[in-house]
Amino acid sequence: MKRRGILAVISGFSGAGKGTLVSLLLEKYDQYALSVSATTRKPRPGEQEGVHYFYKTEQEFLDMIERDELLEHACYVGNYYGTPREFVEQQLAAGKDVILEIEVQGALQVKEQFPEALLLFVTTPDADELVRRLHKRGSETDEQIKKRIQRAYEEAELISGYDALVVAYDPESGVRQIHCAVEAARMSPSHNKEFISAIRAELAERGEEL
Ligand code: 5GP
Q: Per-residue pLDDT tens for 134-188?
């Protein structure tokens, strides 16, 4: 029996390093497929169409919603972001574990539609470390960093809707935690419904035979 892959949703505080963890995870194991999102945000220097995102106009994005082509979507700092449904379905059916790197509102929508999805939240060990990493990136002003910290405070309230925390002490331990959580999800009853009904049917038959 070909097993369906695990749908793993990864969110986290801005600056916690989820992008790095996802790149390392994909490098290290080939069981994963990364979903490329659609967005109305403009490409940043160095970003490529179809690699980082599928860049859409607002009308194109709304048409995708209308045609039910997105598994989830959310508005984040003035732009739309959404996960194309078809790729995810195909890869899961082919047995790949699919990674969605998305923000919290979208993650919780995915959980509603796919209760068996694994929701992981990446955090630093403490707030000081988050502030340090945001400063180290050097891409934001003090004011922007303050905004991100305030947003992190708000997001922290939603962590209880996730299945597991990934405490990124360092990249290696973060990757290991994600991979272990995915392997554990593969053993969960909600991911093995077919197996459970098959064995129950067999037991019923054998019971008749006894
Ligand atoms: P950025 O503009 O920095 O690439 O992404 C901004 C935020 O949008 C990040 O938290 C990222 O994880 C999230 N994001 C990226 N793609 C999607 C998506 O398809 N759906 C949702 N809900 N969030 C996304």
A: 998 887 888 988 988 998 999 999 999 999 999 999 999 999 999 999 999 999 9
**What pLDDT, on the 0 to 100 scale, is given for residue 210?**
66
Contacts of 129 (CB under 8 A, 6+ apart): none
- The two beta strands, 32-34 and 118-123, are unpaired
- Single pTM value for the model: 0.92
Atom number of ligand 1 nearest to Cα 38: 19
Average pLDDT for 59-78: 96
Residue closest via CA to ligand 1's atom 23 equals 102
**Nearest CA owner, ligand 1 atom 15:** 102
Residue nearest to atom 10 of ligand 1 (CA): 103
